[in-house]
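Person: At home tonight, work slowly through the protein below, taking as long as you need, and write a paragraph about the fold.
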Amino acid sequence: MWVVKIGGSLAADELLPCWLDSLSCYGGGEVVIVPGGGPFAEQVRISQHFWHIDDSTVHVMALLGMEQYGFMMSGIRNDLVPVECEADIFRVLKKAGVPIWLPTFMVTHDEDIEPSWDVTSDSLAAWLARKIGASRLLLVKSVSLGDRKVSAEELSQQGIVDTAFPDYLRQGKFITMIMQQEHYKLIPQMLNCGTTAGAQVVASGTKNLAVRSP
């Protein structure tokens, strides 16, 4: 089973439908899509800056922003199924479908997830991948890293993933790759043959999961 996080930078990209088509046609029963935040989360950031809204409220607003992106994707490709809970994820997979995860319900019921901008859709995708026992996590982003191995810490320092991502990645046992928009063409071969594409993200150091302060 794979978790594929579609970055918010693709929200207005002509390749977004290509990704959704590939995942729908070849990922049935195997792929769970996690939406990024994109312009929906960016509006939340703007609102927080303007109104000085507290982090706990903004956390929920950002999760709902991910859900808006998820619903948008299901509107583009209506055989993709929005789901809220773990049981529904497996229900859709069992029927050879492709679920789009709506994170608000599961995330707000886990008090160990810190309500801050340190934990965004990248970390939540890693959290979900560990929770449902995924074998692979693909992060689709508008960035070119080649085919090299790269540390999660390096990516976090460069702002390519969020601050908490390295800690969440250490908790999992899945292969993590960052793929470019153009890599959608490789999805059929990857799913059929188990090949990889893009940059492999590796974790290092000790576990120090970002948690809510007592």
Q: What stands out?
A: The chain is about 45% helix and 15% strand.
